[in-house]
Amino acid sequence: MQKSIKGFIGTALILVSGIVLAGCGKATSQVKNTATIMEQTDISSLDSSQITDVGALETVNNAQEGLYRLKNSPQVVPGIAKAIVKPTNGQTVYTFKLRQNLKWSNGDPLTAADFVYAWQRAVNPATKAADAYMFLPIQNAKQIEKGTLPVSNLGVKAVNKTTLKVTLAQPTPYFKYLVAAVPFLPLNQKVVEKYGRAYGTSAAKTVFDGPFTVQNWTTSSVNWTLKKNPNYWDKKAVKLSSVKFEVAKSPETALSLYQSGKLDNIILAGQQAAQEKNNKGYLSYPSGETDYLAYNFRSKAMRNANIRKAISLVVNRQSLTQNVLKNGSKVPYGLAPEEISKNPSNGADFAKDSSVKESVAYNPTLAKQYWAKGLKQLGVKKLNLKLVCYDVDSFKNSAEYIQANAKKYLKGANIEINAQPKVQAITTMQKKRGYDIGFTNWIASYPDLNEFFQLLNTNNVNNAGNYSNKTYDQLYSNANVKDVTSTQKRYDDFKQANQVSMKDQAIAALNQGQIVRLNKPGLKGIAYAPAQGISLKNAYWAK
């Protein structure tokens, strides 16, 4: 998931590592039942079909609930569905049974028809839903999104008020994660049609079915409140009576507010992560993100494997993460970060299990050899390369580090940095023109390897470097078609695909992201999901 733009995305249900906070709180005569949480930016909408920013996803995930909830990665638990469903008919049909007497926050009954309406609305081209691509596994979704079939042909049906039947185009192992995602939330048709395009533009023009309701929010708000939802089916599990979100765009301001007791949970940025590491409230967890260099294969120089390998080998990823970024990010193993998938046979983490060491190694001596060989093959003595990246400090600083190391170790290498606003940079990379190297990132929308390996599939819109390899494509296809019903075979397909692409140096993985927070030690029970922020359903203050 690339947060500013959605191609096959990315914002995704990026979900990777759900972590429950632990801490010790001093006993008090009266336990608090409210909390104040930092939000990094204003949020744009409460309409589950339209939002892409993490802040909005965070608020909506605490005020709405779908068929499933993501407990942690990669575990889902029932939400307003009674149980986790085992698919039938060759793993293409899911029959969900909803809980009895479900209600929206305005008192309207919530039924299976609310899912049918929401999903049909999302795939309707007229809606221009940011995450419409996530519905493609459902029968006829592809044709509907292309405008060749009406939305009524989508493979979703309300059998009765409490039974929802979903038919997929083919088996999709990660479908359980999709139905836990924001785009798959139900919608109250009466309310949506009442407000039309204004639905979700304020708390007053939205209804909720989750643990909390949103109060006092409009698109210009810098703070808003979640209040416990008395109509929520599991309201007994909700301990906090209210939660206040405060926008703090400055990391320094957020830290000051935390230290003065005005914020209970904040996100740390940049060097704060290192400075606050010994704080009792410090917490670091995977963000499900990989930052990487995408070599543009339309560039003659980048089609040379020796040139690609040389550039990767002059990057000291340990130094990059610890001395340049200083934000808690970690050295990567390949395209997919840790905590996305594990080997079914032995539990090994995919990132380590499938790694190709040389693809992320630091070896200037070997880099010089590859570089000299590459220049000779190209018939040149120097290369001027254009690197496009996002216009944000972490990317610009990393790009300058790569630029300096290339100049230091690779004779005749000159990398020109072109920092662009993120949306513009992503658009440039999607067009595959105007650069030799694209510095980009991806954040998992759901905890499945397909999220990352579609990035290198031939002709994928998010294949920033236009990489194409027949062996890779076949392995990717096997994982999603021939071997899709075998957990082990599918894992092995992705493992081989990763090794093919890393040996080919299709991309240069630079770092895997971490999210670093400070949380008051007495505030427990918060669960974390990178692309959705924090879940407060089970949050409480220790006595």
From TrEMBL:
Residues 75-462 form the Solute-binding protein family domain. GO terms for cellular component: ATP-binding cassette (ABC) transporter complex; cell envelope; periplasmic space. It comes from Secundilactobacillus silagincola. Coiled coil: none annotated. GO terms for biological process: peptide transport. Its main location: other. The keyword Protein transport applies. It is found in: Cell envelope. Belongs to the bacterial solute-binding protein 5 family. This is Oligopeptide ABC transporter substrate-binding protein. Residues 1-22 form the signal peptide. Keywords: Peptide transport, Protein transport, Signal, Transport. PROSITE patterns: PROKAR_LIPOPROTEIN (PS51257). The keyword Hydrolase does not apply. The gene is oppA_5. One of its GO terms (molecular function) is peptide transmembrane transporter activity. Pfam families: SBP_bac_5. It comes from the Bacteria.
